[in-house]
Amino acid sequence: MTDATIAKNPLLIGKGLPPFDKIEPAHVVPAMTELLNELEADLSKLEANVTPTWSGLAEPLTEMEEKLGWSWGIVGHLMGVKNSPELREAYETIQPEIVKFYNKLSQSKPLYEAFKELRNSKEWKQFEPAQQRIVEASLRDFELSGVGLEGEAKERFNQIQLELAELSTKFSNNVLDATKAFKLKLTDKKDVEGLPESALSLMAQTAKEEGETEATTEAGPWVVTLDYPSFMPFMKYATNRELREKLYKAFISRASEGELDNKPHIDRILKLRQEKAKLLGFDSFAELSLARKMAPNVEAVEQLSEELRIASYEAAQQEFEELKAFAGQDLKHWDTSYWSEKQREAKFDFSEEELRPYFSLERVLDGLFGLVDRVFGVKVKAADGQAPVWHPDVRYFQIEDETGETIAYFYLDPYSRPAEKRGGAWMDDCIGRAKMTIEDKTSTRLPVAYLICNQTPPVGDKPSLMTFREVETLFHEFGHGLQHMLTKVDYLGASGINNVEWDAVELPSQFMENWCYDRPTLFGMAKHYQTGETLPEEYYQKLLAAKNYMSGSAMLRQLHFGLVDIELHHRYQPGGEETPNQVRDRIAETTSILQPLPEDNFLCSFGHIFAGGYAAGYYSYKWAEVLSADAFAAFEEAGLDDETAISKVGKLYRDTVLALGGSLHPMEVFKQFRGREPQTEPLLRHSGLAA
Question: How far apart (Å, rounded) are the C-alpha atoms in residues 77 and 637?
């Protein structure tokens, strides 16, 4: 690759921070074509000269994966945060070629055989645990990628991989487009009765963006969308029941009709996944998925789910009966958020909206950064301007250790942008920590993370004022970020979140949510954005009292998603007697109090399992929550008001859960921290569901 080619195409730099200010959709196809040609040559060369040693196999392979990961990772990241028709077209043009290359790489017999030799060599015993885990994971990944397949079976497997990648992108784009396509314009004040000012100002701002230049918070017009910061407040506060029904039905039927219909994609995805699993010798896709996870088998997943379902079902039933009695009417799906909010306000004497002024993004970040300093001994400092960004709202930070040395960086993209950014919140790695040797000089490359949220943007002269749920979401994603950034592992294949089993990867994120209720943490960040006044004590007490409000329903909802996911990937037969929606309805009989409506097509927007990494893995949230609740219990046992004890346990947590990454099996890591295997009691206790 010539310097001139790289100069022309920023996606070919291959290292360092992505030059977001220079990257255009037009760069994607030429860059990836050029890169793939180069990598094809690298792969042939490696296969011809491979030696079964760490430096003759693992290192050159990592280098190749890194090259591709750097460029393609940027493209994937931009698809999530800066989606556009041009970028989509470029992505879809080149994606099949990327998949073909990954297939070729992961089915390389010479490399697979070399890893087997390495596993049986004398060198093996001298390896660090991280190196051993990387080799073992590589062998398993080769096998699960079809390295053992020949002839027609191999050809079919590769076709499946291509089609699945394409379907996943289509699924995701359909959800984004369907969410974007729905807009409800309201002009009558009666239609927005009950809505708080924060929701009205966002809806007026949306109306302005839609060309209603005269729109005001007070007089409208107002435009409500299916984007969470717009949809949720409407469902919670709007007194107009008919409009709530209209909005709810639009939400549950997203991407289920016309050109954006995901139903055929769901059928096809499930069929192909099952076929892929059979080709690899598994009875179901769920078994294939679990081959890479901490849970030993489907039975173990269903056993944990059932244990939690029994603990939460009656509680959820009781919660619903109480809600009906409170509302004094029969409740439909579009009533539950509204009446839950009303009941919560009545029970605990506060609304989520009353708390918003105390949670401006700036203050919440101060609280979050104060917490990680107190518990883990690391300092977060603003580093805006030191890295190019993809949007003016994106911020950049650095993390320093106790000695003042910089050990990591991260981007934060906090606000919702429904036109170009997919919903939800996530953490992704931009650059992984690794020891690098260049011209006989060894140095440690520092990790960089992407933290993406979708909270309410600043409106007018007001900063971004967050709901308490948005605060928890930010803490959650930062927990993922900490595992990526505070790793001490120097081998890329096991540093940070790399090589961490998927059902253990939510441990550090869910663990962080617990701190939102911790007195010093909360009071450190809950300051009124205008007066600077700290959140009154009575509100803190109310927050604590309300913590487990409807917790049976919340747990049951997560179990419902997880069990539907496992059933679709384990027992469901594509083209059989049941449709995916019927499978969901059947499982809802024991996992939902209100049964899904006939027009409910929630599965059509269930991106986690059809366009994300959670296929036959949605249970991971609950599996990891058992781990995270038990991990937080270690701090409770030490005494949350004892600063010395907190920093001592914090150091142990940092040195195990956060530092060891994928260098050991998660159960080993957990036992090093906790001194024993995890227990479900802390989760049930934290949820108010312990017997």
Answer: 40
Cα-trace Rg, the chain: 25
Q: Which residues lie across from 216 on neighbouring strands?
A: 220
Catalytic hit among 477, 501, 506, 513: 477
pLDDT of residue 170: 96
Strands 448-455 and 406-415: parallel
Burial of 596: CB neighbours in 10 Å, binned 0-12, 13-18, 19+: middle
Identity (one letter) of the amino acid at 654?
R
Q: Is 477 a residue of the active site?
A: yes
Torsion sign (Cα): 110, 111, 114, 116: negative
Instruction: Give the strand pairing for 426-431 and 434-438.
Output: unpaired
Q: Which residues of 606-645 are buried (b: 16+ CB within 10 A; e: fewer)?
A: bbbbbbbebbbbbbbbbbbbbbbbbbbbbbeebebeeeee
Question: Which parts of the chain sit beneath pLDDT 70?
Answer: 1-7, 691
pLDDT of residue 176: 93
- Quickly list DSSP for 531-597: T-PBPPHHHHHHHHHHTTTTHHHHHHHHHHHHHHHHHHHHT--TTSSS-HHHHHHHHHHHH-SSPPP
Q: Terminus-to-terminus CA distance in the chain, angstroms?
A: 65
Backbone angles phi, psi at 684, to 5 degrees: -65, -40
User: Can you tell me the distance from the alpha carbon of 50 to that of 56, in angstroms, rounded to the nearest whole number?
Assistant: 6
Q: Please, which residues have CB within 8 angstroms of residue 421's CB and are 6 or more apart in sequence?
A: 80, 81, 82, 83, 413, 452, 454
Tokens matching residue 246: 């209209």
pTM: 0.90
pLDDT at 1: 62
Which residue has tokens 């017997």?
A: 691
Domains of the chain (ranges plus CATH)? 3-148 (1.20.1050.40), 182-254 (no CATH), 259-349+551-618 (1.10.1370.10), 356-489+508-546 (1.10.1370.40)
Q: Per DSSP, what are the bridge partners of residue 455?
A: 415
